[in-house]
Specification:
By secondary structure, this protein is α/β, with parallel strands linked by helices. It has 2 domains: 346 residues, Alpha-Beta Barrel (TIM Barrel); 85 residues, Golgi alpha-mannosidase II (Immunoglobulin-like), CATH 2.60.40.1180. Helix content is 20%, strand content 22%. The protein is built from 9 helices and 22 strands. Strands 1-2-5-8-9-10-11-12 form an 8-stranded mixed β-barrel. A 4-stranded antiparallel beta sheet has the order 13-14-15-22, with helices on one face. A hairpin with a 2-residue loop joins β18 and β19. The radius of gyration is 22 Å and the shape is elongated. The relative contact order is 0.12.
Length: 450
């Protein structure tokens, strides 16, 4: 299990479980976590560049300069964290602010650099920004590709990413981070950068890294436009999980590969992230009836996309910044100091191991009970059943798993050659199980008893 004390650089934490193969020319994925391990493949950290002052979480996304200094720590502290993560086989993804600078008229950044909205001394001048001709340079027509890519999002000064100077400066910043051992980038607001411009910037990277892009899009148009630049975050996936687990039923999730989203190899999926959990468009740690955990059981077992686990903190209003001086702290299995530490919840940890164990094994033996009950296998490596109903589900399931006894890794773990929770016996390629209300079961070859 990934269990580092990550220190000051985590306003929120996202962990990619593994990576697949992405053949796009400017996006590269490194080796997935070792088969059978509990390891997360990557940890995504908050933006590292100098940003405006203030405690709200969103100040991180209002860039002032490319000095690696944020409210979470210094360049040296960040470099140390990257080195420690890399030392245990976990690569670091930086949430990179490429589309824009700050969204206020003037001020000073956390490293002391002063600025005005379109003038960042030593970094950018007013000629380095887009001016799209709308009132206040704001996006007025959300159906206009031109406005989406050149007007300002939430008043954030929109960089002219068609300019050679801007492209070179952004690439230099990303390469500076790579020089510290960073293993990839999440491109913030990628939807608002012309795909050709983003491809040009990424083509200048000094080495091959993982790239995932924030493209908030439900009809697929912009996701498809950006698929050559890297993995695309599929927001519709999170919306679909919320609708299924809270309303329409999880049985319908068995068709996720046919919803017009990007190919699974190009998709980065999540149950929630730092934006959607605040806006209420996805499930969150406050979702009742165990559905948040059950949704992670699904996300970490169903073969669509590269899954991300968001690990954040408790908040009572949407702008609230991170607790404990922006330092993330966790106990062995869960919350500490205001942090929810979802990446250490036992069920999620065990399902990360499930995900690594089954790899790319195909979906099979799909079986449904009522609308809130769904079971399926993953090749001959694993099997899952989720009961999101209010009554128990007793069912006999066909499986490709070999005969034997397996530990249910949702309701327990394997320790040595015994289970500290329920065990399930496969005989003649089937097994009978009773799943309590709002619970799940999962077995895999790594949890088989000898």
């Amino acid at each position: 299990m990934f269990s580092l004390a990550l220190g000051a650089f985590l306003a929120t934490l996202s962990l990619l479980v593994n990576s697949g193969v992405h053949a796009a020319p400017t996006t590269y994925l490194t080796e997935r976590a070792p088969s059978g391990s509990k390891r997360y493949g990557y940890v995504q950290v908050s933006p590292t560049q100098e940003h405006i002052t203030g405690n709200s979480w969103w100040t991180d996304y209002q860039a002032v300069s490319y000095t690696i200094q944020s409210k979470r720590g210094s360049r040296a502290q960040f470099a140390t964290m990257v080195s420690v993560c890399n030392g245990v086989g976990v690569q670091v993804i930086v949430d990179a602010v490429v589309n824009h600078m700050a969204g206020i008229d003037s001020g000073s950044g956390v490293a002391g650099h002063s600025f005005t909205h379109y003038n960042y001394p030593g970094t950018y001048a007013p000629t380095d920004f887009h001016y799209c001709g709308t009132p206040n340079n704001a996006i007025v027509d959300w159906n206009s590709e031109f406005q989406i890519e050149t007007c300002q999002l939430a008043n954030l000064a929109d960089l002219n990413t068609e300019s050679e100077k801007v492209r070179a400066r952004l690439a230099a910043h990303l390469n500076d981070l790579l020089s510290l051992g960073v293993g990839g980038f999440r491109i913030d607001a990628a939807k608002h950068i012309a795909p050709a411009s983003l491809l040009n910037i990424l083509s200048r990277l000094s080495r091959k890294v993982y790239v995932t892009q924030e493209v908030v899009d439900t009809n697929g148009v912009y996701m498809n436009k950006h698929k050559d630049a890297g993995d695309v975050q599929v927001f519709g996936y999170a919306y679909a999980l919320k609708a299924a687990f809270l309303d329409s039923g999880i049985a319908g999730l068995s068709d996720l590969n046919s919803r017009g989203w990007p190919d699974s190899r190009l998709a980065n999926v999540f149950v929630t992230n730092h934006d959607t959990e605040r806006g209420g468009s996805s499930l969150s740690y406050t979702s009742g009836n165990n559905v948040y955990t059950l949704a992670h059981v699904f996300s970490l077992s169903y073969p669509y996309g590269t899954p991300t686990v968001h690990s954040g903190y408790a908040f009572s209003y949407s702008d609230q910044g991170a607790p404990n001086g922006n330092h993330g702290t966790c106990t062995a299995n869960g919350p500490s100091g205001g942090w929810e530490c979802q990446h250490r919840w036992t069920v999620i940890v065990n399902m990360v191991k499930f995900n690594n164990q089954v790899g790319s094994a195909a979906l099979n033996n799909v079986q449904k009970g009522n609308s809130q009950q769904l079971a399926y296998g993953r090749g001959s490596a694993g099997h899952v059943a989720i009961n999101n109903a209010d009554s128990a589900w007793t069912v006999t399931l066909s499986t490709n798993l070999a005969n034997g006894k397996y530990c249910d890794v949702v309701r327990g773990s394997k320790g040595g050659n015994r289970c500290n929770g329920p065990s399930i016996t496969v005989k003649n390629r089937s097994f009978k199980v009773t799943i309590p209300p709002r619970q799940a079961m999962a077995i895999h070859v790594g949890a088989q008893l000898l």
